[in-house]
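Subject: AAA-domain-containing protein structure
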Amino acid sequence: MAFSPSKPLVLPPAIISGFALDTRILKQEEAHHIALAAIGTHASNPTTPYIEDTDIISALAVLRDSDTARRWSARPPSTPESLPTTPNTPRGPDLTALKASCNTYEKRLLPGIIPPSSIRTTFSDVHVAPATISALKLLTSLSLTRPDAFTYGVLRTDSIPGLLLYGPPGNGKTHLAKAVAASSGATMLSVSGSEINDMYVGESEKNVRAIFTLARKLAPCIVFIDEADSIFASRGESRARPSHRETINQFLKEWDGMSERAVFLMVATNRPFDLDDAVLRRLPRRLLVDLPTQTDREAILRIHLGAEKLDPAVSIADLAAQTPFYSGSDLKNIAVAAALAAVKEESEAAEQAAAKGEAYTFPERRVLCPRHFEHALGQISASVGEDMQSLAAIRKFDEQYGERRGRRARRAWGFGQHVVKEEAARVRT
């Protein structure tokens, strides 16, 4: 499946503006959602062998109106002013006034700002270990909602400046950060390596400084740094360039000088073992976001399929049993693929009826049947394979630096030629 090599992709200004495609770079998860929806739209009415701009437009329109889109979109179609609020609902900063006060480097980070009134993700939308959620609430929400408790005693002199979320990819680290921001009423500032690293000497350090100056203006604010290994990779590596070392040094300097209690850093990575030691020392709380167990998978599937109508023959418990090694993101993709299969089936039935000269009425709500999930399972495989080498490295990191370090004896790790049980693929068993 590909775009036509002779026809450029053209999107209407309303679509470009609605999804802020002209001001920001799509995250991998967003692009994946759009591509999957476009493929499904094209498959339901394949007039050409190529995906057309109309397929992309239809996919964006569908996602814009769906609950799923509101969970992953940093800029939902409804503006903060049009959202229902109450006197106790935090609305976030005045972005117009903020932009006027920002310098050039701070303005580059503005697309990453997510006001609390725009965040739709809550802790009920993310299924992880209860201990992880409890720790997140304790470490972040309290420091943001009860700053007075951190103005004296040991919490004043030795407060925790940030925390590390680590684990296999696709298990909800970004959603957890959004849920924390929503529950605490804090503005979220999402930052990636591409927004910090710069090819010109000295520019990366200025970008780092802008993160902290902008966060102070947004306070209370949660600075979320995703794929942190691209920014904080160990300076001891032979591949480390002088500019990379200077970037980390500047980050550590700004971090140590941060006296604002209403700013909290959340760092997420799939490769915690690559992080610089000095960065790890400033992240004393490290929370594992592990692959879901079978019980967890059932709960995650219920979250994503909660608004869908299921055939009585569909067993979510059986689906959970059939998906070992699947991450939360993989399970979401299964739900999306099954729904698209149902839509495609309805469209084909309408085409067949039209060919026979018969009338066809689309059902008020699609019904997901076992065959749709069988089709989805055939398309979507686990992104974390049984032989994924980084799992061994994550497990070793967890035993050495995680919250449960020292609580169990270490053991050798290696898949070899043995049959791997589901529990063995998890970082903690």
